[in-house]
Amino acid sequence: MRQVCENHKVRVNKQHATISDLNDLLKNAGVCDVAAWRNVQRLGDLRNLCGHKRDREPRSDEVADLVDGVEKVMKTIL
């Protein structure tokens, strides 16, 4: 997401910006629309479920959605 910001000349002020921070910047700059923004928010939630200790483990379909979704976002937003 940081690379997408750089590609579109969107300034990132936070050194340790989160996916949500970067996603908001891209939406506010008009790089992505609300539907794409919501999709990235969902992917960020799935990433957090997979990458951080939570009350439950991610389901296999959630992991597949994360992988497929990131591939799609990288093709459409970059």
Please sum up the structure shown.
The chain is mostly helical and 78 residues long. The protein has 4 helices and no strands.
The helix count comes to 4
N-to-C terminal Cα separation, in Å?
A: 9 Å
Reading the helices and strands in chain order gives: HHHH
What is the number of domains? 1
- Largest sheet geometry: none
Task: Please give the share of residues in helix.
Answer: 55-70%
Class computed from helices, strands and strand pairing: mainly alpha
Radius of gyration: 13 Å
Mean residue pLDDT: 93
Low-confidence spans = none
Counted beta strands:
0
Specify the overall morphology.
globular
- Strand composition percent: under 5%
Key structural traits:
about 65% helix, about 80 residues, mainly alpha, about 0% strand
Can you lay out the helices and strands and say which pair or pack?
Blueprint: H1 2-7, H2 19-28, H3 34-51, H4 60-77
